[in-house]
């Protein structure tokens, strides 16, 4: 047998422009403290101290750290690889490749084997007995995940007098429904809901829990995940199953939506994810579908709860308009030409469920009041939908609204700068387009999605 | 009254862009800033000081350079800044982060009992909204997320009344203190620091607590204590802007284009 | 003159002089309360200014009624000589100036004789004007009539007394005094004793009024008689285009919140103000019905320093001529709080256009005072119009007013061949694009046009690209010296890194800031406005334009290149080269141009109640029946575009930057 070639060591280098300043993961895995972070949040690798253990190379989520080899070392590597391949062939029962030799860092001793955790669960968020649509969307998604894993899909509902929601959950694909029904759970409060959820989860051990990334859902999910000491991935836009490792691949935007990250919760259970409403499609409701209903007992003394809901204020009867908090803004500019034509915008706002705002010139001209002004000297807004009507898009205006999720611009001038930020731009006369649009929405009998 | 405000230093994500050729993040010249939501949390903390004479401590977990965001808090009136910085804290996800922050607040609480913990609703780099609830749960205190108005504080009864903003309604909630509050951006407009305030902040000594101070189990913090792991990062597919001509005969087509988008983006639902 | 008369007169005279000296000392002590500022350099230049603007009344006579003032001023100057003789003669009847020689003495007498008549006529004209043709900016209060009356009485008494003496044959030099001589005939036939009595009465009236006048001066707006000549002497030796550099250190004043934090020259400015109202007449903010009135600010500061100054002086009788202590308590606040305080809203209204300073006959420096009062509000109190918080934070964090990502700055150059200093390392000219030119889509069109001109000319130039930061003009004018300082320090470091010597700007605000403000940091840059460069390029034949036949273009002078930096002919020459005709002119042009309303940081603020400044200026431009409004500033561009949209004639009249007009007609 020939001599065993040596694996070349090379050096550990940071690749220019690839680091995303993820939060010093490389530094924290380095066993010899050879990494310092610079002002930009990028690693500075001390090659003197570095032992080329390659832990940082593996840890880096964006492959920004490289085990650099000189051309000579590359040749040597090629020799090594060839030898390794042939050696592997010769000795089929050789110990596993170095990659698998890595020690699992944290295994939670108190929770037993991961394999004990089974099933996909969806939290059914409800207010006054009415479920939020996001629950049904998640059940639809959950069905696919459950099928891929070959497990059951379950829904869990927490509240008071909410058993009727079980049938709905079955209709949207749940095989099982868990109900926690108790007077202390009437309106949502974090502590009792967390207790109810944690008790359920510890009892039945689901491997995946999906929740709506609503205000309520995020409040609960963050608390539950902490109590369960498990991973939670917020605002997922994609959920798939790695069938080999039986892992939930959770894809979500990061860095303000500039990049997408796929996140795994490898060693803890359940794997928790939240998804925003309207991200996942909702499947058809199957009437009369049945499943297993489990009513979980729950005890909690009202006196032990430190929070009380004093009053619920529905948004309809709010006096002051706060355009920064509005989901949909219908905004008018100089192209609206008069105060009267803002009534047209009011009308459009009423058919799409929005609030009217305006540009500085609309405010200067007295067509709309100052608190509704969007832009540099007004408010910075990021609604889900921004419809700019007769706004040319001076820079002062753009800086106040360009981060809106979806922008529709209607303007006569096709060179108007507003079109540079619009997702949908309509070149046309606002006084023709808007009435026609209002008519179309009314005739379609479409309803406003809350 | 003692208010602890948690702030995070984040890259200014609005300045990050993607190099279309290499599909990598362009971070050159992108500064680190105070997470914008946290600026509202600090302001709300200072308002407790203005109104109730609260002592305000700002804390942050991050690299040594994060003292800058603490100094911003000191510049507008916070009394003390503490930075939690240690290489073993690095690589933390929200669960591991809340561990360190909660431990620090518990330690702070021993010298000066803490009544209110304030956090921004979420960060602009992570957008998770999980650290605030994480701290509350670890400390076993109540949490009031998405608060857009603090209505009153009863210093005798040790309770607070706030308004929370949910999607379709608002609710007024009362809780006993101590409590953890996450704030919406609309809760206030952060004040602009005065120059004398900046001088004070520049001269302040910021304590830096590493794990030698907090003495946490290294398996529960940093990368080790983080159950989530980023497996892959890639550039998103972007919605390209679309221009539709809507004059004269083309008008119906334009109307349909808008209408279809409203339905597609779930603003409207067809019956 | 009887002995008793002489004794009575001597008593009154000595009392009056002592009282006058006491008043002058008080004024001097109040001046001393201010901070020290060196205005004793360039003495020859100052002497020249005193002659030109003080004695020559150059700025006063620039307006029609100024001639009237010129005559009153000079009649007083000459009469002073005979009044001195008169007052001494009151105590020593033998005393006169005849020892100068008969002819010189005769000339003095004849000039005094004529000038007294001139003064009467001028006073009558002045009174007629303020009664029947009064401008809004001049007040018609008690004082407005009292002082002219005193002067008239003085002159009339002089003639009465002299003509009586003449008719009594007591005037040896009567042939030198034509007015008196002709009046003397009036007394023919009157009893000599009566004449003598009238003469003595007139003499006494003259004497008492004169001494009263002397002592009334320091308490009235006629204090300017004492203060305006020194003010012309101590006037700034350069155009006042910025504020003094502030030491941003602990314990230093960060702006002005107490009137004693002004310098002695500022206080002299307050004293020199005659309330002539010329500043108010040209102020675009006052003229559009807003709270700010530059005259009002100076007047309020004057009342404020007198009130507070007297209190401070009384509190330390032994230390009369020292500066006010740093911790001096003010009886009356400087900003808001009383009638003797400046209105805060007025401070925020100012566009720092400098029209007031250009118009002031005695060179009062309004704008730096306003900016320094803003400094206190911004830096020490964080008290400013709410819309500015975004602007300040964006400037500090993202180095541009809008808060756009700094990495987007170079995007203007995407479709062009733009050399970057980071690549080429060296170039003769740095083109400092400015924030508007880099980010504003409309202004980018002129940036592109100018870059095309630069490329066509073949000169060596480069851009800083994303290394450029906002110049800090608006931040500084808004009183945020802290952020300005950061931006200036960073930009200067970048200039030094590349060894930049010559900088071209297209924005007058960048121009003025780099040229005049950055100088305070010890960097000497040759800053060139793009209109200057283009003009040279055309003149040297480095670019050629196809001349058209257009006489429908009007040119609007931007404040910061026109008034503040006297670049007046270059843009006009360029327009002439392109159009074949000199541009049309608005009534208010060149150094008297009317601001577009965007300067002084007003660009980033909401309009105040009243008419809109930009709209007013747009109407002035439209009055010329022009079809194109040529500008040389991105702010003016925005303002005219807005004004035109408001006039609902989009498209008919166009706003174009000079660079765009040149690029359009340039032969490539």
Task: Describe what you observe in this structure.
The complex is a heterotrimer of chains A (450), B (271) and C (668). Chain A has helices at 25-29, 55-59, 71-90, 133-149, 164-171, 190-204, 215-228, 342-352, 360-364, 395-401, 430-444, and strands spanning 11-14, 35-37, 43-45, 65-68, 120-124, 126-127, 130-131, 153-159, 176-181, 208-212, 232-236, 238-242, 247-254, 259-265, 271-275, 292-296, 307-314, 328-332, 355-358, 385-389, 406-411, 424-427, 447-448. Chain A has 450 residues and is α/β, with parallel strands linked by helices. Chain A has a seven-stranded parallel β-sheet, sandwiched between helices. In chain A, helix 6 packs across helix 7 (215-228) and helix 8 packs parallel to helix 11 (430-444). Chain B is α/β, with parallel strands linked by helices and 271 residues long. Chain B folds into two domains: 2-220, Rossmann fold (3-Layer(aba) Sandwich), CATH 3.40.50; 239-271. In chain B, strand 9 and strand 10 form a beta hairpin. The longest helix of chain B is centred in the middle third of the chain and has 18 residues, at 94-111. Chain B is globular. In chain C, the strands form two sheets. A four-stranded parallel β-sheet of chain C has the order 2-1-3-4. Chain C has a three-stranded parallel β-sheet with strand order 5-6-7, sandwiched between helices. Chain C is mostly helical and 668 residues long. Chains in contact: A-B, A-C, B-C. Strand 17 (307-314) of chain A pairs antiparallel with strand 11 (169-176) of chain B.
Q: What gyration radius of chain A follows from the Cα positions, in whole Å?
A: 28 Å
CATH topology-level name of the largest domain in chain B: Rossmann fold
Low-confidence residue ranges of chain B: none
**Largest interface: chains, residues each:** A-B, 115 and 109 residues
Q: Helix share of residues of chain A?
A: 25-40%
Number of strands of chain A: 23
The number of helices of chain B is: 7
């Amino acid at each position: 047998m020939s001599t065993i070639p040596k694996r070349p060591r090379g050096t550990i280098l940071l690749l220019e422009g690839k680091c995303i300043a993820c939060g010093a993961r490389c530094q924290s895995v380095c066993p010899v403290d050879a990494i310092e972070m610079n002002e930009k949040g990028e690693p500075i690798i001390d090659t003197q101290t570095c032992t080329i253990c390659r832990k940082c190379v593996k840890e880096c989520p964006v492959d920004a750290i490289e085990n650099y080899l000189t051309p000579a070392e590359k040749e040597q590597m090629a020799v090594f690889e060839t030898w390794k391949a042939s050696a592997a062939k010769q000795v089929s029962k050789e110990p596993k490749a170095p990659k698998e030799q890595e020690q699992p860092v944290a295994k939670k001793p108190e929770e037993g084997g991961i394999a004990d955790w089974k099933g996909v669960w969806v939290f059914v968020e409800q207010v006054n007995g009415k479920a939020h649509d996001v629950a049904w969307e998640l059940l639809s998604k959950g069905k696919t995940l459950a099928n891929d894993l070959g497990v059951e899909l379950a829904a869990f509902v927490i509240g008071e007098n909410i058993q009727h929601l079980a049938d709905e959950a079955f209709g949207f694909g749940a095989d099982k429904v868990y109900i926690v029904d108790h007077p202390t759970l009437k309106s949502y409060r974090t502590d009792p809901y967390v207790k109810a959820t944690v008790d359920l989860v510890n009892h039945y051990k689901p491997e995946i829990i999906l929740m709506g990334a609503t205000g309520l859902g995020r409040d609960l999910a963050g608390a539950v995940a902490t109590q369960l000491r498990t991973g939670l991935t917020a605002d997922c836009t994609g959920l798939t199953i790695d069938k080999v490792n039986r892992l939930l691949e959770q894809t979500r935007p990061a860095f303000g939506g500039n990049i997408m990250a796929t996140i795994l919760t490898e060693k803890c259970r359940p794997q928790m994810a939240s998804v925003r409403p309207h991200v996942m499609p909702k499947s058809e409701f199957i009437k009369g579908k049945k499943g297993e209903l489990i009513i979980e007992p729950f005890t909690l003394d009202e006196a032990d709860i430190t929070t009380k809901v004093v009053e619920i204020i529905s948004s309809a009867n709010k006096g002051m308009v706060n355009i920064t908090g509005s989901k949909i803004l219908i905004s008018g500019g100089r192209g609206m030409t008069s105060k009267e034509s803002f009534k047209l915008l009011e009308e459009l706002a009423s058919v799409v469920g929005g609030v009217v705002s305006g540009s500085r010139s609309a405010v200067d001209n007295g067509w709309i009041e100052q608190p509704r002004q969007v832009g540099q000297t007004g408010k910075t807004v990021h609604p889900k939908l921004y419809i700019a009507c007769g706004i040319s898009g001076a820079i002062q205006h753009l800086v106040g609204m360009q981060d809106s999720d979806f922008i529709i611009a209607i303007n006569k001038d096709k060179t108007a700068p507003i079109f540079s930020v619009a997702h949908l731009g309509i070149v046309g006369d606002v006084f023709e387009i808007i009435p026609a649009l209002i008519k179309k929405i009314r005739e379609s009998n479409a309803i406003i999605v809350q | 009254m003692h208010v602890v405000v948690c702030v995070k230093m984040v890259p200014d994500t609005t300045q990050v862009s993607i190099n279309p050729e290499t599909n990598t993040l362009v971070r050159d010249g992108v500064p680190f800033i105070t997470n914008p939501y946290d600026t509202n949390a600090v302001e709300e903390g200072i308002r407790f000081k203005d109104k109730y004479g609260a002592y305000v401590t700002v804390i942050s977990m991050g690299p040594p350079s994060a003292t800058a965001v603490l100094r911003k808090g000191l510049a507008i009136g916070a009394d003390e800044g503490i930075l939690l910085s240690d290489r073993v804290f690095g690589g933390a996800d929200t669960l591991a982060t809340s561990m360190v922050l909660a431990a620090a607040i518990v330690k702070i609480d021993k010298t000066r009992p803490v009544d209110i913990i304030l956090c921004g609703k979420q960060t602009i780099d992570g957008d998770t909204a999980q650290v605030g609830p994480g701290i509350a749960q670890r400390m076993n205190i109540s949490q009031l997320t998405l608060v857009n108005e603090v209505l009153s504080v009863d210093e005798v009864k040790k309770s607070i009344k706030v308004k929370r903003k949910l999607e379709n309604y608002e609710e007024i909630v009362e809780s006993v203190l101590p409590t953890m509050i996450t704030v919406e951006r609309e809760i206030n407009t952060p004040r602009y620091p005065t120059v004398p305030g900046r001088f004070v902040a520049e001269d302040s000594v910021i304590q830096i607590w590493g794990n030698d101070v907090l003495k946490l189990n290294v398996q529960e913090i940093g990368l080790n204590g983080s159950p989530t792991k980023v497996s892959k990062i890639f550039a998103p597919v972007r919605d390209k802007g679309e221009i539709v001509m809507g004059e004269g005969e083309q008008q119906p087509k334009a109307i349909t284009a808008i209408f279809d988008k409203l339905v597609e983006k779930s603003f409207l639902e067809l019956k | 003159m009887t002995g008793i008369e002489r004794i009575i007169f001597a008593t009154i005279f000595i009392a009056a002089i002592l009282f006058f000296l006491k008043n002058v000392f008080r004024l001097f002590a109040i001046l001393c309360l201010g901070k020290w500022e060196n205005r004793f350099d360039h003495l020859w230049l100052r002497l020249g200014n005193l002659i030109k603007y003080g004695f020559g009344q150059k700025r006063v006579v620039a307006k029609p009624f100024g001639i009237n003032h010129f005559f009153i001023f000079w009649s007083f100057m000459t009469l002073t000589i005979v009044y001195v003789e008169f007052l001494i003669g009151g105590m020593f009847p033998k005393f006169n100036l005849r020892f100068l020689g008969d002819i010189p003495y005769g000339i003095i007498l004849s000039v005094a004789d004529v000038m007294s008549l001139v003064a009467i006529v001028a006073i009558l004209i002045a009174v007629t004007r303020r009664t029947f043709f009064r401008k809004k900016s001049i007040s018609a209060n008690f004082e407005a009539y009292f002082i002219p009356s005193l002067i008239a009485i003085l002159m009339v008494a002089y003639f009465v007394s002299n003509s009586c003496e003449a008719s009594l044959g007591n005037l040896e030099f009567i042939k030198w005094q034509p007015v008196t001589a002709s009046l003397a005939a009036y007394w023919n036939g009157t009893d000599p004793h009566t004449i003598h009595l009238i003469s003595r009465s007139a003499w006494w009236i003259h004497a008492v009024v004169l001494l009263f006048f002397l002592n009334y001066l320091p308490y009235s707006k006629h204090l300017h008689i004492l203060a305006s000549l020194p003010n012309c002497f101590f006037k700034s030796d350069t155009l006042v285009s910025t504020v003094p550099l502030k030491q941003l250190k602990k314990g230093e004043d960060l702006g002005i919140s107490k009137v004693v934090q002004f310098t002695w020259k500022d206080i002299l400015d307050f004293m020199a103000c005659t309330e002539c109202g010329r500043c108010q007449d040209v102020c675009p903010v006052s003229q559009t019905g807003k709270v700010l009135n530059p005259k009002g600010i100076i007047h309020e500061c004057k009342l404020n320093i007198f009130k507070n100054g007297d209190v401070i002086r009384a509190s330390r009788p032994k230390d009369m001529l020292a500066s006010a202590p740093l911790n001096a308590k003010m009886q009356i606040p400087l900003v808001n709080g009383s009638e003797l305080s400046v209105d805060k809203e007025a401070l925020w209204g100012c566009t720092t256009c400098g029209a007031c300073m250009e118009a002031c006959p005695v060179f009062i420096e309004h704008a730096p005072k306003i900016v320094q009062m803003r400094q206190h509000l911004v830096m020490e109190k964080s008290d400013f119009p709410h819309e500015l918080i975004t602007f300040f934070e964006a400037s500090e964090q993202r180095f541009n007013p809008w808060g756009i990502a700094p990495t987007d700055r170079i995007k203007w150059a995407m479709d062009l061949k733009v050399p970057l200093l980071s690549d080429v390392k060296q170039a003769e000219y740095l083109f400092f694009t400015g924030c508007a030119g880099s980010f504003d889509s409309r202004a980018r069109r002129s940036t592109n046009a100018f870059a095309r001109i630069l490329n066509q000319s073949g000169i060596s130039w480069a851009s800083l690209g994303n290394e450029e930061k906002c110049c800090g003009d608006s931040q500084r004018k808004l009183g945020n010296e802290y952020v300005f300082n950061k931006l200036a320090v960073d930009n200067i470091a970048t200039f030094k890194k590349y060894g930049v010597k010559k900088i071209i700007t297209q924005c007058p605000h960048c121009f003025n800031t780099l040229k005049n403000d950055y100088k305070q940091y010890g960097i000497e840059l040759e800053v060139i406005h793009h209109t200057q460069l283009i003009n040279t390029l055309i003149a040297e034949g480095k670019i050629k334009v196809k001349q058209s036949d257009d006489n429908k273009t009007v040119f609007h002078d931007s404040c910061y290149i026109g008034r503040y930096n006297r670049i007046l002919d270059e843009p006009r020459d360029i327009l002439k080269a392109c159009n074949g005709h000199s541009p049309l002119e608005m009534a208010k042009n060149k150094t008297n141009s009317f601001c577009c309303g965007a300067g002084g940081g007003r660009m980033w603020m909401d309009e105040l109640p009243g008419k809109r400044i930009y709209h007013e200026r747009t109407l002035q431009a439209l009055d010329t029946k022009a079809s194109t409004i040529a500008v040389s500033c991105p702010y003016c561009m925005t303002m005219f575009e807005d004004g035109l949209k408001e006039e609902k004639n989009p498209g008919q009249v166009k706003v174009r930057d000079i660079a765009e007009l040149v690029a359009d007609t340039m032969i490539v």
